[in-house]
Amino acid sequence: MKEDLTIEWVTAADDYKCKLSSETQKIAKDELREDKNTRDQALQQMRDWIKMNPRIENSRLDAKWLLRFLRTKKFNVPMAQEAAERYLLLRQAYNPAFNNLDIGEPVMDELLSLGYIFAVPGRDNKGRRVIVARPGVFDPYKYTNADMCKIHAITYEALMEDEENQIRGFVHFADGGGVSFPHLTLFTPREAVRIVKNGERTVPMRHKEVHAINVPSSLKFALDFGMSLISEKIRKRIKIYTSLEDALNNKIDASMLPKEYGGTMPMKEMIELWRKELIEIRPTLILHDKMKVRTHLYSEKAREGAISALKQGFGCQDVSSTDSTLHGITGSFRKLEVD
Fold it and tell me: Could you tell me if 111 and 138 are in contact, meaning their C-beta atoms sit under 8 angstroms apart?
């Protein structure tokens, strides 16, 4: 194929050298259908597709970035292509929340210091990273929904740069203590639907286990609503406990959790170690702002993240833009005003 010499890609196509352990390679083969031949062919197909796609203005072409989509779609190339394009479109359409992923920003640093969300150092007995989330420490009167999305994006993007994580997946642990109704008003129900649906389709993460404690009974309706939005496969991996004691009694593996939740390392130390990881990966995350699509080649609803539009494809003709019942979240990130 003829190279387009007029484009300087965000990252160039590289010659992939597998540095994974034999154990990880076996997991990739057994669970993701990945081997050298499949990988090499799929990478070439992804690169050719990006270069020929008139909607994609610029992108990363390095193997590690492309493999995050191929692996999460088990090397189904068309599905990986769709996920990659949706990712590029939505991160650009939701610019305030997914660009300038800089942990050095004061608000991002503050949320990290609070322990709102962070990855635990090391790996569990299955080689997976553990992500701790504490939504109750997020002050909905002080921070915006864009702040919330951005700190999540920083966390997940940083983790997905590691091939071990792409293959082995993640364990999530969430403490719902302190969550109240004002937290729910950060997003409208329609915004929540689009974020969850697009997130599951677009964010290339293998969610292996999800454990949640201290979910307020008064917000059960919100939990039920959220559970209805996710796929049955993910729903089956979610375990909800009334308290930490209940979780520990049900033999949850607490060895990787902060000392405050039954582990050995204090949360503050974990957060500082994670901060060092984020600072190291910061240049790569900032580089992502150079990736671009030609938004005018997408329908209005596709740009807004409407699930119906994205399901039907990315063409301008997808869904009539005169339908005003769906408004999306583009440009709607706002600070919650409370009387």
Answer: yes
**24 burial type by CB count under 10 A (0-12 exposed, 13-18 middle, 19+ buried):** middle
Are 204 and 166 within 8 A, CB to CB?
yes
Look up residue 3 and give its two tokens: 């190279």
User: Could you tell me which of 209, 199, 194, 205 has the C-alpha nearest to residue 71?
Assistant: 205
Res 93 pLDDT > 90? no
DSSP character at residue 104: T
pLDDT tens digits for range 153-189: 999 999 999 999 999 999 999 999 989 888 888 877 7
Q: What is the pLDDT of residues 236-245, one digit of tens each?
A: 999 999 999 9
**Residue burial 99-124, b: 16+ Cβ < 10 Å; e: rest:** bebebeeeebeebbebbbbbbbbeeb
Q: Is the separation of the CB atoms in 150 and 98 below 8 Å? A: yes
Q: All domains of the chain, ordered by start, with CATH?
A: 99-284 (3.40.525.10)
Cα–Cα dist 76/159, whole Å: 22
- Reported as type and span, the H/E element at residue 129 is strand 129-133
The helix/strand count (H/E) of the chain reads as: 16, 7
First vs last C-alpha separation in the chain: 61
Tokens representing 32 are 């993701």
